[in-house]
């Protein structure tokens, strides 16, 4: 539907005139058009007039950038421009209704935005101020951007060490999962990566909730994407004879979401699939990538048929 609207934007505009945006919101009595622009930003690049009108709307109403879709469109269309970094930083600040989801992710990949990584890193440090680490952890978009985009930053390592000290002292820590998992898989030593995944997997599975699956899976996948040694250790754990079929499938699902599995790992999964298919009652496991409980054979088959494990 959005694509159809974008493709016929000029005709629709000619027919409905100034009432087009308010009509798209579904509330003809409200002057607010934020909702319409929030969705139209997804398809704005399909029609030049729509792109121009969205750009004009943002110029007139900068608060539109608090919507993730509009901010993502803005970053794409203003790549490399000097004011882009300022606009993104503005939407990281707590208490201003700024975007919390897409802005940290955008700043985590500065080269994609045509921005200098060192400049972005300095801007994030400035935004965090003198307290960039310690417990409790900074609950800000700037900290999340630093964790996701600059995992080797000393502030990331310091925050992880502070978290570990707090856990050692009190036996537990109070950290939102949207902060904990990105930090954990940015900072954990590669030698401890598989053990960290195992501990977190067991903890999440025991709580019978899917709420934490996305931040956990995204953090693990991001680490696997950037760290070849972590991938090697994950592959070794998958193929180990000490690893159960269920655990191997669970870890392989995360690994295959990051990169193509090596042939020897795929062969090992085929052997595990054959064994599971021969069981009268196959094992079941929680898949963090899809946030579902599935039979192990079904998960193994999905991994092998997805094109990443062949």
UniProtKB/TrEMBL annotation:
<protein>
    <submittedName>
        <fullName>Uncharacterized protein</fullName>
    </submittedName>
</protein>
